[in-house]
Each structure stands twice: as structure tokens, then as C-alpha cells.
Amino acid sequence: MGAPASTIEQLERSADVPTGIRFVGTSVTTDDTPVFVSWRQLHDEARAVGAALQARGLVPGDHVAVLGPTSRELVTIVRGCWMAGVASMVLPLPMRMGSLEAFIESTRARIRHGDASLVLIDEQLAAFYEGAPGDPPTEAMGAVLPGAPGVPTGDALEVPAPDPERLVILQYTSGSTSEPKGVMVPDRVLTANIDAVCGAAQMTADEVLVSWLPLYHDMGLVGFLALPMTKGVDLVQAAPQDFLAHPGNWLQWISDWRGTATAGPNFSWVLATRALRRLRDIDLSSLTLALSGAEPVDPAAVEAFVEAAAPYGFRAGSVFPAFGMAETAIGASFPPRHRGLVCDTVDRVVLERDRVAKPVVVDDPDELALTARRLPLLGTALPGLELRVVDPDTFEEQPERHVGELIIRGTSVTPGYYRRPEATAALFRDGWLCTGDLAYLLDGELVVCGRIKDVIIVGGRNVFPEDIERPVGLLPGVRAGNVIAFGMEGYKGKESVVVVAEVRADPTVELAAVRHAVHHRTLEVCGLPPRDVMLVRAGTLPKTSSGKLQRGRCRELYLDEELELA
């Protein structure tokens, strides 16, 4: 067998199929009228973008930073970069106007650290970023699109020769502005992972993918743009803001365009469940792959969606809990398609004390929440990858049901972080990528328990913050999904628990009663009273650009007394 087709070769092949991308939603269309663009048309426009980049002196191996909302223009520029052999760096958008200064700082840090040769900015965001001495040239996104002055035709593009090691994507992880980490995704990693994902998910040529996921996140960029673009399957593309403003839009798009596959983090399925109460005349029977990923899968949230969506034709077997990370391009383990959610119910205390997943049977739902954990099975390693669970200290492989650190190796693994040799060295051990996730294997399937750095050690037990955050999030007055628990060193070096919870912006919410309820629920869950319960205003908990809770940052704000109290 020869080498797999390169990204450029696959893009050229996909342009010859009678499928394409359909832009939907008010943010990416005119008057909310869907716009269909064939892959052929997009390809021809992208070739012109690639030629425009080459006319500016960019060569294969260079990097282009792109700052703009989801749009036809952004998609075309990303494809144009790839056709010219130029790596794309799609930058996160400002999440909250209150953090504008931090946004500008982190954007500049990524641009400079990523050695961008050019920065392309959407006109809507031009006011948010201004180049400073030492920054690369900045231009409007429209300046490299077909029809703009000086932009050549696609025929002028000089398609570079294949190079498996050339970066296609420089994917910056969410986190500290002082030391951004760019995951390197070379051509060989991207193509290997997309092929593995398609094989493991049993993707067919007549799939219709539906996505509102941000294109600066790996699940949106790789899983739901690069995949359909290189394989030539239909894509319905919306913008995150159109989903967040009206979560029911997501389900409506699936119904309208007979979507077969979609994805979202846990919180999005919660919002979709609420939206179903207000929807009528939608049909979800075409959806056979509803991926839940990017953050821990909450079985209760998944089951609530299944129950609410069943009257609309949704089948429980379509639920698809999976594991992936930017360091494997996107996918790492997938369950069988059509199987649905399968959980392992284990003794919470034994898991926390002995790091062993001891199966238990608990019939009482209230007792289940306090004495057991239901952990979703996330399937087996994708083709070309190996998964192991090892003792983090000795690196010895662990038996089944014994918790340790998840490590990965194989064809889809990044070579490391761009210009971060120390971080890259820390990422690998004996050729294995160390994920930082605590997990165990069950009949060869992956079960993830939490992040090593987030574990709270209380009274000799390893308490997982999610086990506090989820029950607290169900309390009246608390905003579900907006609770953070972290450990603090206390008396005689013993660790204690601090809980920070957003409260609903409702004048009827009594803060004293909520604080008491949070205190009591935490005591129930971990057996010790929290050192502190902090109630903060809605929308103020620190989150990454992809919406994940930042426990470390929250701890810093707590210590600096900078939390925005309710």
C-alpha cells in the first residue's frame, strides 16, 4: 500500500462530487435564507485565495492567522490556505466584552508565538485588534477573496508537492495568555485521523453533517469541516451564536436538511432538551450519530435528551459518546455506531479511595447520586491508535478497572507543541502521549474519570470535581453547568474544598438559602463540609474559548479576591 492521499489531493478529489456546504442561520446568511455552495465552487474560490496568498510572498510551510466569525469567507480562506500548503491558525473570538483586554493580549500572543506571516481579520472584528510593532501584516479577509482588487484566478495557484510533515493546522489550545500552546497537526496526522474517524464511525457518501461548532475549536474545524471538505459529503454549517441565541435552531436544521450526524459538548444537549419543549413539527429520525464530546458526558443529560427527543423520531441508539483531543487532531476513541449510551456504574468511595472501578447496582436515584458514579463507555481506539492506562508515577500498565493515566500512541498523534520544547517533552514518555486524563479500561473500552490536575485529595480520597459540580448544579437557584469545585490546602496541609457557583439572575433567589443548600450538598457528596461557598453573578465564571470551565483560573480569582460575587 502506498502513502494515504494528502490533504490537497483529497480536497481536489472532493471537488468533483455533487455535494457541498449549506450555510444556514441569520449570522452567516442574508435574511436567514440558506445558501448552498458546491464543493467545486468553494474549491475554485479557495484556489484563488491560495494564489492571493502566494502573490503576497507566502510559501508552503508558512502560517496564516485568521480572526473572524463562522462564514463562507472564513471557510473559503481556510481551504485556500491548505491548497497553498499554508497552515491555518483560526483564532478564538472574544467570548465576553468584559474580557476585551485579555482577548487582545491572548490574540497577539497566539499570532506572535505561531509565527504568522499574515493576519486576516473580518471587518466586524477589525476594531478589536490593531497590529503593533513586531506583529505581522494585517489585512481584511475580503482582500484575498475572489473579486477583490489584485486577487488572481485560481489558475495562478502553484499547488505544492505533497509533504506529510508540513503543518496543515496550528491549533491553539485554550488556556493561559502568557504561554499559548499550539498543537501541530501535520498533513500525515490530519489525513490519518480523518480516515480513522470515517472508518470507526462507519461514515458513508450520503451523510449530511450538521454543525454550529466554532471553527477555532478542533471538533468544529477538523471533525465537522475538514472531514466533509476532504471526503466530499454534505455539510450544513451554522454559527455558534445562532445556536446559543436559539438552541432549537440546531434541531430545526437537522430536521430541515435530514442531518445524519452532528455533535456538541454536554451543555449543548442540555440546551437542546429545553428547546424541545417549545418545538413542533420537527423530524429527528434521520439523525443516526449524535456525538457528545469535548467535555465530560453527563449520562443524566444524555438520557433527558433521549426522552425529550423520542417523540420526534430520535432513536436512543444514535447517541454517540466519544473521546478525542486536539493532540490527536480530533478523534481518539469511538463506540460502535447505533449502540447508544452504555454506562459503567461503580462505587464512588472505592473509586476515590482505591482508584478501582468496582461495579455496583443501585436502584434508588437519590442514593445513586451520592454513593455511585455512572461513567459512559467511550468505545475503543480508532484505527492506527493504541490506548493504555498506566500508573502515572511508575508508568506500569494497569489491569482492567484500575484507574491510571490514559496514554496514546499511533498515526494520529501530534508531534508536539509548536516552539514549546519543554511542553512537548512533558507531553510524551517513551513514545506515548500522556493525556493527563484519569481513566480505566473495561473489555478494551475507554472510561474517563477526570483530569489528574483537577482531582481534590480529601481525607485520603481522590474526589473528582465533577462529582460535586453536577449535584450542586441541580439545586434551585444555581445555574446548571456553571459550578466549579477545587481544592485548597488548609490546616496542617490538609486539602479542603471550595465551591463557586453562578446563581440565576432572578430577584426571587435567596442567596442565604442557596449557600446553605450548596454547603449541604457538598457535604453529602464528599463527606466533608466545604471550606468556602462563593456565589457569583451569572456569566462570570472563567471559561475557555470553547466554553470549558477553567478550574485553575477560578482558583486564582478566588485567592486574589476577584470573583464577581452575587
Question: What is the CATH superfamily of the largest domain?
Answer: ANL, N-terminal domain
Rg computed from alpha carbons, rounded to a whole number of angstroms: 23 Å
Percentage of residues in strands:
15-25%
Could you estimate the helical fraction of the residues in percent?
25-40%
Sheet with the most strands: spatial strand order: 2-1-10-9-11-12-13
Quickly give the structural class.
alpha/beta
Number of DSSP strand runs: 28
Overall structural domain count = 3
Topology:
Layout (H helix, E strand, L loop, with lengths): L6 H8 L5 E4 L11 E4 H17 L7 E5 L4 H12 L3 E4 L9 H14 L2 E6 L16 E3 L26 E6 L9 E5 H14 L7 E4 L6 H14 L2 E4 L2 H6 L2 H10 L3 E4 L1 H11 L12 E4 L6 H11 L9 E3 L1 E2 L6 E4 L8 E5 H7 L10 H7 E5 L3 E2 L3 E6 L13 E7 L10 H7 E2 L2 E11 L2 E7 L4 E3 L2 E3 L1 H9 L4 E12 L5 E9 L7 H16 L5 E5 L14 H9 L7
Parallel strand pairs: 1-10, 3-4, 3-5, 5-6, 9-10, 9-11, 11-12, 12-13, 27-28
Antiparallel strand pairs: 1-2, 7-8, 14-15, 15-18, 16-17, 19-20, 20-22, 21-22, 22-23, 24-25, 26-27
